[in-house]
Amino acid sequence: MEYVVFGNTGLKVSRLCLGAMNFPLECDFETTVATFQDAFDAGINFIDNADAYGRGESEEVMGRALKETSEQRENYVIATKCWVKMFDRKGGGGGRGGGCSRRHIIQACENSLQRLQTDYIDLYQLHHPDPITPVEETLEALDRLIKDGKILYAGVCNHYAWQMAEMLGKASLHNLQPIISAQVSYSILDRVIENETIPFCRKFNVAIMGYGPLRGGILTGKYKRDEEPPEGSRFSNPRMAKHVLSDDIFDTVEELEDIAERNGMLIHQLAMKWVLKNEAITTPILGGSKREHFQPMYGLFDMEVDPADMERIDEMSERHRYQPFGNQSQVGGYPNGPAYW
After folding, report:
1. Residue 85 has what DSSP assignment?
2. pLDDT-derived band at 327, boundaries 50, 70, 90
3. What would the pLDDT profile of 128-187 be if each residue is shown by its tens digit?
4. Which of 155, 175, 211, 262 is 20 to 30 A from 138, alpha carbon to alpha carbon?
């Protein structure tokens, strides 16, 4: 495993981050514990979650599971997120709205601390931008949590570069703790952040966490041209599949499969190696719903890819730098306004 300093902090994290979103959905508790232990044994010390995942269940399961591993709390880094309005599991409302208001951030943090069974959260992230709450209010709430020792650092997810610039500027102006990280989508099939986000983060030493390095499983090769998506998979819904599983995407995937075979690896290992070669990406997030989804990734740093093949991937995926930032539809407000939260 390789390790890197996390942006403008004293935090040192593994080059791979374990994404815990899907654990409660398809893993039993014993498998979840084993998956965390596998990751620790491989040298991973960084885990990402969010209160929205399973309406808090993912954090709850993670909190219990980490207690069952052999690793001490001070040896790993927990990242989680807030933003959405939470609901109980019977569908009833919980709290008074979501977003990045002072009230919501502070209450959401307390709830996450309880579910995770920890005294502090290393990295607390805003899951999305908030078009309603003043940036100053959001920053003041995060600053208070840092000063109270509830969180160590604050970051953002799915923000544009200009939104992060506003947050850094106002934090400096008002002598508040700045954001130190950005979690954004990045893969061979989604290179949009190379245009503005990466240059911005390099300039201001903001750490980048790349989610979706396998593009929702597309870069595992499990989706095939002219075949129905596997039942129960992310794109088994025809409405989702028709927007994503295009001939253009399959052209890319099929060429990647050839390159992977030529280099003696699986396509998802190749896709992750391509992300890792970009030093601007502090740590990509490994996602999965089964223990065996993660295990092939733990040997990535012992694998080599022909430089000519990496150049070919750069060339063939250049067109994926220019497409809508699909996870930012909420910028400027959802179609139905704040009530949509």
Report:
1. P
2. low
3. 999 999 999 999 999 999 999 999 999 999 999 999 999 999 999 999 999 999 999 999
4. 211
Scanning the structure block, which residue is given the tokens 């139905």? 336
Told to judge if 53 belongs to the known catalytic residues of this protein, a careful annotator would answer yes
Q: What is the pLDDT of residue 331?
A: 41
Range of the domain at 190: 3-340
What H or E segment, with its residue span, contains residue 29? helix 29-41
Q: How far apart are CA 301 and CA 336, in angstroms?
A: 46
d(C-alpha 215, C-alpha 190), whole Å: 8
The active-site residue, picked from 53, 124, 153, 160, is: 53
User: What is the count of structural domains for the chain?
Assistant: 1
> What angle do helix axes 161-173 and 197-204 make, rounded to 10 degrees?
30
Q: What is the CATH number of the domain that holds 9?
A: 3.20.20.100
- Does residue 124 contact residue 145 with C-beta atoms inside 8 Å? yes
Task: Please check the confidence at residue 235 and state whether its pLDDT lies above 90.
Answer: no
N- to C-terminal Cα separation, the chain? 39
Q: Are 276 and 186 in contact (CB under 8 A)?
A: no
Residues sharing a CB contact under 8 Å with residue 282, sequence separation 6 or more, in sequence order: 4, 6, 7, 13, 181, 207, 208, 209
Task: Kindly report the number of other CB atoms within 10 A of residue 322's CB atom.
Answer: 10
- Say whether pLDDT at 267 is over 80: yes
Instruction: Count Cβ atoms below 10 Å from residue 47 Cβ, excluding itself.
Output: 23
Specify the pTM.
0.90
Beta-sheet strands, E only, within the chain: 3-5, 12-14, 17-19, 46-48, 77-82, 121-126, 151-157, 179-185, 207-211, 283-286
Task: Output the average pLDDT for the chain.
Answer: 89
| Rounded CA separation 36/243 (Å) | 34
